[in-house]
Design goal:
The structure is a homodimer of 300-residue chains. The first copy, chain A, is α+β, with helices and mostly antiparallel strands and 300 residues long. Chain A has helices at residues 35-41, 75-86, 213-217, 263-273, and strands at residues 47-49, 55-60, 63-69, 94-98, 103-107, 127-128, 134-135, 145-149, 152-157, 162-165, 171-174, 188-191, 204-211, 240-243, 255-258, 296-298. In chain A, a hairpin with a 4-residue loop joins strand 9 and strand 10 (162-165).
Chain lengths: 300, 300
């Protein structure tokens, strides 16, 4: 870790808006730990290694996308996705859709779907019980309580005792039809714009893109309804989709995430809420759940 | 306008998450006007034609980006930008930076900056007075009052009598150094991820991308600090930057936006707040300012 927010810190984009001129890199008048400083100073024990059996690796023509799955929230869907990946199901998949400020979605094109598709699954829009949560004190306009649960942005409702993953940028969910129990894990989407929080508790969320968001973001917008592509020629193929656990060691993705229950993460959140760098003249004193970076780095 | 949300409705991505299978396009059990239906049914008088002297047109190697400028909020900066564009200043500009879930920024690379650069401008982080606003009833976690002002997402504070443009996806602002009065209009950025609301009232916002967001989104993430590119080879050139008013008629961009003070827009906002389509099982009953689409179409 060099101290800078590099390409691997794929969701960390919340720093200042300096000009590229020399003045932009002048030392601040008072020393303030930047987000990059806090991340660089985190102890090795504050990082967790992402488990290989939870990492879905998508090789696109222009590079690699890695998704951390969240079995704590959607055990049945995650098991299905893992099974689909290991069976090679997604190796014939394509990007089906890219809708501006919304999502990119992938799966098999209609004429490639196997006759015997896997059956639909019971919805896992939220999980029973109040799952562990590092709650934010900041108010949220959609949910009664939000924060981080096992590394993911999440929410809870004490009134009904349910917990759920929140649709922030980079989150991954399972497409479904009108019936809540119609998703089968064969079509997945990732959020590419402003967090579509209206989807929370309406669809099963299964994880988060931890590497390669720029590849999904770069998909041309589809010109069909809802951003679907109209012709096969517009659809980017997923060359190979693997669980990291099944990849040859030499090629295997090894990533670490800053633990959301660590002291350094607490400092990072606070530094985002109360901006102390001299650039800010009107610090918000507030941070939106989806504006908190979730740093990821290659395992040392 | 065909009724679908096409590529020109660049910020309209807030529809459902259907699967691509035939079931996904089955008729809903009860007829509900979709966002696309509401937009398609809007009367001609509910659309405003974007003024050619407010449209900044950036021709990138892969296509065209169009920005609507907002002189009501930042008159001095908008005048400066228009002057820079008309003088050809940006024709040697490049994409300087792409930071994940944050912004894309452009300007002249350091070794191409003219010796006599234009002087810095006084900050226009907010505007004096309570500018006209179609206020949302929905609570906002950053500002006391939010809504739409002359077609832009905006906020007001009655306590200090100021109004400002809000950093939603696609909004464009002016890079500056640590001094609030250091921006000079030569470096601009566009928001490409979750709305960085902490920037509100900390930087001068001058407009919104109304066409071509996918081209900015597709820029590879920079690997330098804050997503800046390290080498000239990584920087995409801006081939030509023009004010629409100066373009030959045949090539001129002619766009319309749905008026934010129209009845159809009010219906559109309500349809986003209270989802009545049968797909939703937990309608949020709330809409975030930055989740409201601002439809744009080619002028008929």
């Amino acid at each position: 870790m060099t101290g800078r927010v590099d390409g691997v810190c794929a969701l960390a984009g919340i720093l200042g808006l300096m000009m590229a001129s020399p003045a932009a890199v002048a030392a601040p008048t008072q020393p303030v730990a930047s987000a990059a400083d806090i991340i660089a100073a985190a102890a090795p024990s504050e990082w967790r290694t992402l488990a290989a059996d939870r990492l879905m690796v998508i090789d696109l023509p222009k590079g690699r996308v890695v998704i951390e799955l969240a079995p704590d929230f959607a055990p049945v869907h995650v098991a299905r996705i893992r099974q689909l990946v290991r069976s090679g199901y997604f190796d014939r998949a394509v990007i089906l859709r890219s809708q501006p400020n919304y999502v990119v979605q992938w799966g098999l094109p209609e004429d490639h779907r196997p006759a015997s598709a896997p059956g639909p699954l019971k919805a896992e829009f939220d999980a029973p019980g109040l799952l562990p949560l590092e709650a934010l004190p900041d108010r949220d306009s959609y949910a009664p309580e939000v924060g981080f649960s096992v590394g993911f942005p999440a929410a809870r409702d004490w009134a009904d005792g349910r917990s759920w993953l929140v649709h922030c940028y980079g989150m991954v969910g399972v497409g479904r039809d009108n019936s809540p129990d119609s998703g089968d894990g064969t079509e997945l989407y990732a959020v590419t714009g402003h967090s579509p929080r209206q989807l929370d508790r309406n669809i099963t969320v299964v994880g988060r893109v931890v590497l390669g968001m720029e590849l999904l973001q770069a998909m041309p917008f589809g010109t069909g309804d809802l951003g679907f592509y109209r012709t096969p020629a517009e659809m980017t193929p997923l060359r190979k989709v693997s669980m990291a656990q099944d990849m040859p060691l030499a090629d295997r993705v090894r990533l670490q995430a800053l633990r959301t229950d660590s002291e350094s993460f607490r400092k990072l959140v606070d530094s985002r809420r109360n901006r102390r760098d001299p650039w800010f003249v009107h610090p918000a004193g507030h941070v939106d759940l989806c504006n908190v970076p979730l740093p990821v780095r290659p395992a040392p």
